[in-house]
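SEQUENCE-TO-STRUCTURE ENTRY
===========================
Question of interest: how does this chain fold, as expressed in backbone structure tokens?
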Amino acid sequence: MSAAKAGVPMVNLRPLLDATEAAWRANLERLFTRMHFILGEQVESFEQELAAAFDARFAVCVGSGTSAVELALRASRLAPGEVIVPALTSPFTAQAVLAAGYRLKFADVDPATLLLDTADAASRVTARTRAVVPVHLYGQPAPLPSLPRGVAVVQDACQAHGAPLRYSAPAAFSFYPTKNLPCLGDGGAVLTNSRSLAERVRQLRDGGRRNDQVSRIRAVNSRLDEMQACYLRAFLPKLVEWNAERSRLADLYDRLLADCPGVRPVARREGSVCHLYVVRVRRRERLRKHLAANGIATGIHYPVPLHQQPAFREFAPKRGSFPIAERACREILSLPLWPYISGKDVQKIVDKIREIEPRTTV
């Protein structure tokens, strides 16, 4: 067997499927009995279960996390203008802002947590600013900024399933297969405590219709399908257990790397659900190649700050404008983490790291 096949992947969904097989098979059997594949019983039930589990009044499922951010912005009924996002996040956060019809504006991130620097974001608010999108990056609940009256907050919670969030501001979730609460394709949801906003998202996701064939507003087609809801309903009851295991494994990484100065874990805020385990390494490519040669997968979330990506350059100030995000993007490295990875595998990963990043000498 090759080193890659015998090694450690970034994520492995097979144990999650095995642990929940009876539930998702029962859901699929009911689905195929009813033969209602779009906006049927499974999605409706999952929306109710998700809202209850996350302590929100309403959950509206959509086709992806990107759509969730876009439709949450559109449903907020903001005037034309700009939306502030952190310079370090997935490019899909920025794409969602553009899809919603707004201009982009960037802010820097906190040097310890890499979450949105709320003071920097607040300092960039102008008369044209309509919203700020804090990103709960790596599963950490980001602080929400204090903003002038009339500037909205829309939360990008696509990596923060089960984190303690407040839904006075709508929160967008993704169910991409690598997430803490995954499906087996694309999927997303908007959670909110506002009935009117939830109803607007329901209309926006379904072509502007209200359970008929009449489009009343300009909208999109972005609906979570019933089959994905079958898996999500099976996975949801395990989320608390899975998040606790992620936290335990992240703590294990912390302890094993504590005397390894060349590899610094990104600080985690209280309430983190440890979607990713991210470290900072000055000689990142050297370490990444070494781990790959030993069958250990790694990732970079994310290698290029948004203001340096071609799609967003028209909104970007000059290079060097967001020094914390720019430096972090040169150093961050995500190590394997999922609920059923073994402690032995974590020890193996750290042992391989230490082969080129030795302990502190006393």
